[in-house]
Amino acid sequence: QVQLVESGGGLVQPGGSLRLSCTASRSILSVYFMGWYRQAPGSERDMVAFVAISGSVNRTNYADSVKGRFTISRDNAKNTLYLEMNSLKPEDTALYYCRIRYPSGGDYWGKGTLVTVSS
């Protein structure tokens, strides 16, 4: 079993920035998928950004609503996935979850960190 712990959420004004972190309880060197999702009240959970790893190739993908504002990255040495969020808008308000998938079939989710964008 792998535990994922998100952090970095909070209250920020429109136009502001936050960096979310997701730290895994074991090495992420062998993962093939790492992603961020979000769920606003009354809405479904949607993909925000992900990185798909195949050998030395990392392919990133972003939801259209966050392209150019959010950046996904990882630090293997720290077993941590990041989401840098800039130019935040009120519609970015949601509970943000990270997800990691291993080739062995393990598919793990964190419990979420709340981001509130409001003046």
> Which word captures the global form?
globular
* Largest beta-sheet details: 7 strands, mixed
Mean pLDDT: 96
- What count of helical segments does DSSP give? 0
Model regions low in confidence, pLDDT < 50 over at least 5 residues: none
Straight-line N-to-C gap: 40 Å
List how many beta strands DSSP finds.
11
Please give the share of residues in helix.
under 10%
Strand content bin: over 45%
> What is Rg?
14 Å
The SSE string, one letter per element, is EEEEEEEEEEE
Helices and strands: which structural class?
mainly beta
Describe this structure in a few short sentences.
With 119 residues, this protein is mostly beta strands.
Report on this model:
The protein is mainly beta and 119 residues long. Helices cover 0% and strands 54% of the residues. The strands form 2 sheets. Strands 2, 4, 5, 6, 9, 10 and 11 form a 7-stranded mixed sheet that branches. The model has no long low-confidence stretch (mean pLDDT 96).
Key structural traits:
single chain, 119 residues, mainly beta, seven-stranded mixed beta sheet, four-stranded antiparallel beta sheet
